[in-house]
Design brief:
The chain is of the alpha/beta class. 34% of the residues lie in helices and 22% in strands.
Length: 125
């Protein structure tokens, strides 16, 4: 999974048509950091960048969005779009795609939680 994620990252950099504006590292979190990833693991990672300018962060936000799209395109990201009404009146939704290798929905990815935090920054940040 680490090799797959690295391949996706370098492909996104190539697609962007721009070289990274600063030195960076991608660091795994959760099961990836513990070498415990398995089928159906979600992907949790951060971007550590050498220079934390807004321009540099904007570049890595774009790369993170591209990565999320490429990971979703693998067909294992759950999209709950089919409404289901239970007998007790509770409603939920069902997904056509299985829940497998996908971005973390809890905010442990470079884009974090919009308006609250992101996981793109310098080690000091």
């Amino acid at each position: 999974y680490k090799k797959l994620l690295r391949t996706i990252l370098f492909d996104c950099i190539e697609i962007s048509g721009q070289r990274p504006p600063t030195r960076f590292a991608m660091a795994g979190l959760g099961s990836m950091s513990r070498d415990e990833m398995a089928p159906y693991s979600d992907v949790e990672f951060i971007f550590l960048i050498e220079e934390g300018s807004e321009e540099n962060k904007t570049y890595f936000r774009s790369i993170a969005r591209l990565m999320a799209l490429k990971i979703a395109n693998l067909g294992e990201t759950e999209f709950k779009i089919i409404p289901i009404q239970a007998n007790d009146g509770e409603s939920s939704a069902k997904s056509f795609s299985p829940n497998g290798f996908s971005m973390d929905i809890g905010g442990l990815s470079p884009l974090g939680k919009e308006g609250i935090y992101e996981l793109i920054g310098t080690p000091q940040e």
